[in-house]
């Protein structure tokens, strides 16, 4: 299945088994995943990368960036599509915070697929955001 069609996904998750499972699913869907396990690794990965080499999507545990405010700051600093995962209950109707898609853990594989596909097919959220390198068919499922 190639719904991500070589899209690059940076997985920011501290728990090795969760990160491995996410990496496996992204690979199964045709994406290219890379894992960082600490906030320091995440920030270094984003700050030390040339803008045209940033991943297409950041899949991040919200605790790794300091909650909603940290997520907002990250979204403002980097021209990247973000899917946030939260172990804390999200307020009703909080599927999105601005341009950030949110998933409440535990979530289903279908919910993950929908969030990543949606992020892959979104228009450019800011003027300086690069075009997606790997997302094909504007987020429509292709097999």
UniProtKB/TrEMBL annotation:
A single MF term (Gene Ontology): DNA binding
Gene3D superfamilies (alphabetical): 3.40.50.2300
Alphabetical keyword list: DNA-binding
Domain Response regulatory intervals: 8-120
Keyword Membrane: no
Protein name: DNA-binding NarL/FixJ family response regulator
């Amino acid at each position: 299945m190639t719904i991500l069609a070589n899209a690059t996904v940076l997985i920011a998750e501290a728990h090795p088994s969760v990160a491995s499972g996410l990496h496996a699913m992204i690979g199964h869907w045709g994406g290219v995943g890379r894992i960082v396990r600490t906030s320091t690794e995440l920030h270094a990965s984003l700050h030390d990368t040339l803008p045209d080499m940033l991943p297409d999507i950041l899949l991040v545990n919200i605790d790794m960036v300091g909650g909603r405010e940290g997520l907002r700051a990250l979204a403002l600093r980097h021209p990247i599509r973000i899917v946030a995962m939260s172990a804390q209950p999200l307020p009703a109707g909080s599927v999105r915070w601005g341009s950030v898609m949110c998933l409440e853990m535990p979530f289903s594989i279908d919910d993950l697929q929908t969030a990543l596909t949606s992020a892959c097919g979104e228009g450019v959220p800011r003027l300086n955001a690069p075009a997606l390198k790997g997302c094909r068919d504007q987020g429509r499922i292709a097999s």
